[in-house]
Amino acid sequence: NAGVTQTPKFQVLKTGQSMTLQCAQDMNHEYMSWYRQDPGMGLRLIHYSVGAGITDQGEVPNGYNVSRSTTEDFPLRLLSAAPSQTSVYFCASSRPAPGTQYFGPGTRLLVL
Amino acid sequence: GQQLNQSPQSMFIQEGEDVSMNCTSSSIFNTWLWYKQDPGEGPVLLIALYKAGELTSNGRLTAQFGITRKDSFLNISASIPSDVGIYFCAGPNPETSGSRLTFGEGTQLTVNP
Fold first, then answer.
1. Cα–Cα nearest to B29, from B113, B98, B112
2. What's the mean pLDDT when you consider all of chain B?
3. Are residues B100 and A48, on separate chains, in Cβ contact within 8 Å?
4. Residue to test with chain B: of A7, A36, A43, most B Cβ within 10 A
5. E strand spans, chain A
6. Residue A36 half-sphere exposure, CB side, CA atoms within 13 Å?
7. Confidence of residue A63 (pLDDT cuts 50, 70, 90)
8. Are A98 and B31 inside 8 Å of each other by CB?
9. Are strands B44-49 and B101-103 parallel, antiparallel or unpaired?
10. CA neighbor of B86 nearest in space, from B40, B33, B55, B32
11. Whole-number Å distance between alpha carbons of A66 and A79
């Protein structure tokens, strides 16, 4: 099993550009989530999904969209990138409960 | 919203020393999780606690679920250089019926050989 995979590993964007961060898991997990990590602020939940076709907002959803058309994939879309979205983004998945989540390796995003 | 407060924020220790860190909440948690994040990697689950008073070990790591359900502790014995990283506590947020994980801000551990 590959676990949770994320692409790309690094990305540089200009303000106003859009992009999609990819996340996939091969563990048949129902629950998937996106976090951003900023220095001194731990991990903050952006969006999450409890199953295919169901998504919900986390603590910091503004500027991001998600969809969950399959169990395996949970892409995160930045609609119009802003410097405040410079961060490290982690995708995670788990069985129904959000507790024992498995994390991907992260995507490091720089918005100029 | 619900916050988990971790202390200390950072620790600088010598190899071989024992380490203690804790996590507190203003609300009751029914599950406490401890994760470690190596530099440049995603967090990895170390220990999960499900019952008040529970004490669980994973090698040199020991974690406890506080009896008030509002705190948890992680101890590392005889630290080694590969213990370096950020340690996070986390738990299903009771304010959202447990549908979201809340993370503490992390304890940055540095081990000097």
1. B98
2. 92
3. yes
4. A43
5. 4-7, 10-13, 19-25, 31-37, 43-51, 54-57, 64-66, 76-78, 87-94, 102-103, 107-111
6. 19
7. very high
8. no
9. unpaired
10. B40
11. 10
